[in-house]
């Protein structure tokens, strides 16, 4: 009976020893993998993951051509570039064309006072009229000039005569058109040689 119990205990101990050895080998294998990862400091990347990395597109310098006075002229210029497989777009801009210089005597408190001053100016043989509408109603107009020096000459003459004349700038705006494209500057000069336009590089905008 004792011999049988001793045999059973010995078998159990052998089984535990085998289980211990197997567990040690498994732990060593996992530790080796972990150390290999830590030493290299980076994980493996699949080929599919590498191909998915975005590549930045190289864009040529952007070019601006203009101003073009009419939409029809801008469309003709657009077609010239399209015939050369250059993509462009027409951009409309509200630009300052010129400035006029208006010499006036500021608005009087009432129409009656404006008319009285007008009569005084006409008796002095000074060309003038009363403004009847807008922000300058009841002002006295002394002339509209395209040359600034001419306006200043009239104003100084009126001030010397005792009138509080001033110069009001009147901006003249107009619509002009530009072509904008992603291309090299040199390729545009021959295309638009017959047009009175400026060709220049500019910052590319997001499309």
From TrEMBL:
Organism for this UniProt entry: Litoribacillus peritrichatus
Question: What is the protein name for this chain?
Answer: SPOR domain-containing protein
**Domain SPOR: where?**
62-132
Enumerate the InterPro entries for this protein.
Answer: SPOR-like_dom, SPOR-like_sf
Q: Which domain of life is it from?
A: Bacteria
Pfam families per the UniProt record, alphabetical? SPOR
